[in-house]
Amino acid sequence: MGPELVEIIAPPIAIISVGALVLIGMKLRYTHKERTRLGGIAQEDVQRLTDSVGALRDEVQHLRDGYLELNERMEFTERLLERPKPEADPRRAQKD
Questions:
Q1: How many structural domains does the chain have?
Q2: Whether residue 50 is found in the same domain as residue 72
Q3: Which residues, other chains included, contact 37 with Cβ-Cβ below 8 Å and sequence gap of 6+?
């Protein structure tokens, strides 16, 4: 291998090596920023927390629906109780 060949091959190899190092550094920085942004929590933990929050939202919605249905029933019962009672039928009172 002659000195001319080294002069031709060395600059592209150096450029490629520096580029690879820059890309590796960028990847490491991105990974570090993501972990720092998430407070150092692993991605699986984030997914598990997200699923838990979704399940809690569904449960709260279910409880709200139950509360609304119960409230409607209570209001209906209150309206029935507030209605004036019909006078007793004298024929019916005699049968008892």
A1: 2
A2: yes
A3: none
Consecutive H or E run containing 4:
helix 3-37
Q: What is the pLDDT of residues 39-85, one digit of tens each?
A: 666 778 878 989 999 999 999 999 999 999 999 999 999 999 998 87
Torsion over CA of 80, 81, 82 and 84, rounded to 10 degrees?
A: 90
pTM > 0.70: yes or no:
no
CA dist., res. 21 & res. 15, Å (int): 10
Residue 10 lies in a domain: yes
Q: Are 42 and 50 in contact (CB under 8 A)?
A: no
**83: DSSP letter:** S
